[in-house]
Amino acid sequence: MILEIKWRFGDYPRLAMTKDRIIYQVPFFSGRNDYGWREIKEKYHCGQLMYRINGKWVSKKKLNGSAYLVDEKIQGPLLPEKYRPFNNLKTK
User: Fold this and answer.
1) Domain coverage including residue 48
2) CA-to-CA distance for 82 and 60, rounded, in angstroms?
3) For residue range 27-57, what is the model confidence (pLDDT) as tens digits?
4) Has residue 83 been placed in a domain?
């Protein structure tokens, strides 16, 4: 699955927002740990809609302040159908 990235965030370089306004955290390494794709969802915190990013609550206003437009296409969290390992197996 190819994601069309339209926005990035200066304060949060590991975040990317698609044209469908879904925020993803792109894969990264931290020490020996390997973190994969993760969808960041909005949640209510103290009566406001906020995002939980890196263990901190971040508001939409703060994300808006650091957003900038990009035009990227990234291979997303799911492989295309033709590259999946058990896609073309025939069962008897």
Assistant:
1) 2-77
2) 38
3) 888 889 888 888 999 999 999 999 999 889 9
4) no
Tokens matching residue 38:
């993760």
Can you give the pTM of this predicted structure? 0.76
Which stretches within 1-92 are classed as H helix?
60-66
Beta strands, E only, the chain:
2-9, 15-18, 23-25, 28-30, 33-35, 38-40, 42-45, 48-53, 56-59, 67-75
Could you give phi then psi for residue 62, rounded to 5 degrees?
-70, -40
Say how many domains are in the chain.
1
34 contacts 19 by C-beta, under 8 angstroms: no
Average the pLDDT over 51-76 and give the result: 91
